[in-house]
Design a protein that fits this description.
By secondary structure, the chain is of the alpha+beta class. It is built from 9 helices and 9 strands. It has 2 domains: about 5-160, Jelly Rolls (Sandwich); about 165-290. Strands 1-2-9-4-7 form a 5-stranded antiparallel β-sheet. A 4-stranded antiparallel β-sheet has the order 3-8-5-6. Helix 6 packs across helix 9 (about 230-280). The two termini are about 50 Å apart.
Length: about 290
């Protein structure tokens, strides 16, 4: 026993005290267990302490134990594609975590970090499996806890996921819109410019030489300097492209509006999360959250 009853960092203490027994009885996961089962569980678990900011385990580490929060707060988080930490939940006293890799034998799916100085109850994998076999009624509590955790994750994902503006905009396009975009994309490319430039040089160059250099004995099909056919074709192309360019500009405006709408939705969701968190922590009156 440590003098003064304090649990230093990293110290493991078997849970045999009456205080630990009462703490386990208050945890929803074990509240339905009989007193002998609670005594058995208290003998199997050890108490570990973590300082604020200390990592309990990392994602992809082997899962060797289940944890129950005795006091303090533990943050469960994952890394997204941009290497940013995304908080999945913040667990208070009475909550448990680390059960997934303990149950299936896989690696940790998330990282657990102590937000404040915390005391946890640790149950090794072999001891947990043996306890479930001896006390199957406790498995019901684990299943209920997993279901609640899954519901919480689903709500979190539904609030956090932002839709891709390009995909949403594409879903709203009609067949004619897609055709207009395909044409304007080609018109706005360097390839189209080179085609027009090459056609102009060949057309006018041939007719200038055929009209001015009689020794070549070429027949001018669009005599210089009028270039009537060339001007007619050019005007027709311009008349056809101008409306398409306007259509493309309108579609671009609609794309910008879609992006603005999605940004607004994200901001609304963020405000709702802040309001909910503030209500839970009693930072603002409950009436403001209704």
């Amino acid at each position: 026993m440590v003098e003064g009853g304090e649990v230093p960092l990293g110290y493991h203490k078997p849970m045999t005290d009456s205080d630990e027994y009462l703490a386990l009885a208050a945890i929803p996961l074990f509240s339905n267990l009989s007193p002998p089962a609670l005594e058995h569980l208290a003998a199997l678990m050890v108490r570990v302490s973590y300082k604020a900011g200390q990592t309990i385990f990392l994602a992809q580490e082997p899962g060797d134990a289940l944890y129950v929060v005795g006091s303090g707060t533990v943050r469960i988080s994952v890394r997204d594609e941009d290497a940013n930490d995304v908080a999945l939940s913040e667990l208070e006293a009475g909550s448990f975590f680390g059960e997934m890799s303990v149950l299936d034998g896989g690696k940790r799916s998330a990282t657990a970090t102590a937000l404040v100085d915390s005391v946890l109850h640790r149950l090794e994998r072999e001891a947990f499996e043996g306890f479930l076999l001896e006390h199957p009624e406790s498995a019901v509590g684990v299943i209920r806890g997993l279901s609640a955790r899954l519901r919480q994750t689903n709500v979190l994902v539904s609030h956090r996921v932002a839709r891709n503006a390009n995909i949403v905009h594409g879903e709203r396009l009609t067949a004619l819109d897609r055709l207009a975009i395909a044409i304007t994309d080609k018109v706005g490319s360097i390839g189209f410019f080179l085609c027009i430039a090459g056609w102009t040089v060949l057309w006018t160059g041939y007719n200038i030489l055929a009209s001015e250099v009689t020794a070549l004995h070429w027949k001018a099909f669009d005599p210089f300097p009028a270039f009537v056919a060339y001007l007619l074709i050019s005007n027709v192309i311009q008349i056809l492209l101008m409306p398409l360019i306007m259509v493309g500009q309108n579609l671009q405006t609609r794309h910008s509006e879609t992006r603005a709408e999605l940004d607004f939705e994200v901001n609304q969701k963020a405000e709702k999360e802040i309001m909910t968190s503030s209500c839970i922590s009693n930072e603002i009156p409950i009436s403001c959250c209704s």
